[in-house]
């Protein structure tokens, strides 16, 4: 895979969910790094500056809501599109998600290509 492929940080405390998402996204042409909790995700996001982040909302240490708040408050990371990926029921345009800083939402489970397509859409919108 080319080093120019978009880098996606996948954040989920479930190893199975992380592996499934990471493998499918890699198959779809993305470079992928993983984090098991919000604190690890925050460190990796600041160090690696991924092109996009996919995060669960319920995470140990720092949940997805707080992770997103901190990333969107930082000048270095506020530009990174964040896709909330959760089993919690929200509408795709739920104002709580937008207010928290999420750029999009997908509900678990979803078709694997839905995540790749949503990420491509977010990345296309994020380009200057």
3D architecture notes:
By secondary structure, this protein is α/β, with parallel strands linked by helices. The chain is built from 5 helices and 5 strands. It has helices at 15-27, 38-48, 64-73, 95-100, 112-126, and strands at 7-11, 31-35, 52-55, 82-86, 104-107. The chain has a 5-stranded parallel beta sheet, with helices on both faces. Helix 2 (38-48) packs parallel to helix 3. The longest helix has 15 residues, at 112-126. The chain is globular and about 30 Å long. The two termini are 24 Å apart. The mean pLDDT is 90.
Helix content: 40-55%
Strand content: 15-25%
Structural class: alpha/beta
**Over all CA atoms, what is the radius of gyration?**
13 Å
Low-confidence segments, given as residue ranges, are none
List the helices and strands and how they pair.
Layout: E1 7-11, H1 15-27, E2 31-35, H2 38-48, E3 52-55, H3 64-73, E4 82-86, H4 95-100, E5 104-107, H5 112-126
Parallel strand pairs: 1-2, 1-3, 3-4, 4-5
Helix pairs in contact: 2-3
